[in-house]
Amino acid sequence: MNYTENYHLPQWVKSDxxxxxxxxxxxxxxxxxxxxxxxxxxxxxxxxxxxxxKTLDRLRRLAYNHYCAVxxxxxxxxxxxxFHQEPAKDGTGVTGTALWNGVCFSAKNPxxxxxxxxxxxxxxxxxxxxxxxxxxNCTTLKVNxxxxxxxxxxxxxxxxxxxxxxxxxxxxxxxTLVNLDTGETEISHLLNLAQSEANCALINNYHDCxxxxxxxxxxxxxxxxxxxxxxxxxxxxxxxxxxPIRAVTANDRAIxxxxxxxxxxxxxxxxxxxxxxxxxxxxxxxxxxxxxPLQTTRMVQIPDGRMVREMVYFRAEPVPAETTFSxxxxxxxxxxxxxxxxGAVLL
Length: 347
Hints:
It contains one helix and 24 strands. By secondary structure, it is mainly β. The strands form five sheets. Strands 3, 5, 6, 18, 21, 22 and 24 form a seven-stranded antiparallel sheet that branches. The mean pLDDT is 84.
């Protein structure tokens, strides 16, 4: 009996007597060889899929980083396979919006609500205590509040006392607005709390800011000292006679936006990025008429100090040379949407 060179399978000649053991052993060898080939093929396929996924993830990261690098350039440079739109500056293809402090929005407030000062809705958790030249012993002012409508406050009013101050010495402090319902910071910027007196009682010490809040959301306003230039303590107040809360002028229309890109050739996928703040209501994002899944989201800061939600959608399939992006927002009974910008990058 002869045998094959590679797998030692029997090769009978005419004079051989075929034995059951030889035949079964041959079949077992063939079976084992086939199984090994399948496992090797599956392992190679899995390795190839993993490598392809890793490459795709890297391309998406590269595309996202490139988009972030150019989105705030003015004018936005023309490039193949990328678009960016800030609808407050360019409303092409966008309907149903109004402007709220320079950002497109839609909001629906409950009827019959009369607003007064912030002191009608707030609870002080902790004052700002100041120990001169000892920042570690200073504490942050914290105030909790919830306002029944989508509204804003343009100025905060501080009261308290100042001791051992060198007049007009810069006093930096960070103002943040934290949404307690989501745990996210929605506003963060610096104020200068410098005082003109060496020792005084503070009454109606106003500081311009822009605090926007959404109907029924629970917030904490924090004012953190970043220096210890004098001693004393500070509290927040806001009443009807100074700077009251202003309800957002009603704009309860649905927001729609659409943009079509025409490229020389199709693409293998891409990213669609929407930035804004959504509270209640329903936001739908589509690509060529089909809803695309939200893949990742985070809070980012825009140039005016406000924090907005960045929502990134992936499309992992071939994209035609002419492709259309769209979004639609309904605020339903009580909801609001600050629509800052959107754009896309093709892969």
